[in-house]
């Protein structure tokens, strides 16, 4: 049985989770850095860590950062699979801040310390924005000092180990399930982690999908059903009038 309670932004609570041998800690520990005493305790307990840096405790998180530095509403893949009335309000008029104000980068340094001592760190996008949020998490790991390869391992094998499914998932090996993503020919996220989003094909449950459209290809072709905002553009336009916020995002442009 897995025991995966939320961290709760209380450091002493996090330490008791480690001592009690919980499967893992979900969300960041609410301190800027941990040192040898905590690292030794954590290593001995073999407790996993899913920091969800997109909503890092203690300051501005990764989601705010990626809205700030990227024009997310211009990302064709994001806009293809998310309702515009959810993306545009939070992505176009977003909070901006100096890079030193983004707390998730400091928090990400802890993940690097943990994996350097053999710990288990997993990627959790927290569902902040469908499709892209887990990529944000991987990119944030690298901001904290992980190599692109280490970040990719956290997003694949570490997650499978954490859930006790590494005998079926997490790596490409004989006998494992062939659920794969195939990158575009020019993409190599092991060198540039930002290229993790440049996916050409998805293989899942024995089916091949075009990652740009999610239409099924191969021996059994099948176009996906339209999303609700594609079926009724008028309704989607009316929904644009409703506020949509991210974790910690504020309505309207702000500078700090």
Can you offer a commentary on this structure?
- With 256 residues, the protein is α/β, with parallel strands linked by helices.
- The protein has one domain (11-251).
- It has 11 helices and 8 strands.
- The strands form 3 sheets. The chain has a 4-stranded antiparallel β-sheet, with no helix packed on it. It has a two-stranded parallel ribbon with strand order 1-2. It has a two-stranded parallel sheet with strand order 3-8.
- Helix 1 (11-20) packs parallel to helix 2 (36-45), helix 6 packs across helix 7 (133-143) and helix 7 (133-143) packs across helix 8 (148-155).
- The radius of gyration is 19 Å and the shape is globular.
- The N and C termini lie far apart (44 Å).
- The mean pLDDT is 90.
Question: Concise description?
Answer:
The protein has 256 residues and is α/β, with parallel strands linked by helices.
Shape: globular
Q: What percent of the residues sit in helical stretches (DSSP H or I)?
A: 25-40%
Briefly note the structural class of the backbone.
alpha/beta
Low-confidence stretches: none
Query: What is the number of domains?
Result: 1
Helix run count: 11
Q: C-alpha Rg, in Å?
A: 19 Å
Order of strands across the main sheet: 4-5-6-7
What's the average pLDDT? 90
> What is the end-to-end distance?
44 Å
Biggest sheet record: 4 strands, antiparallel
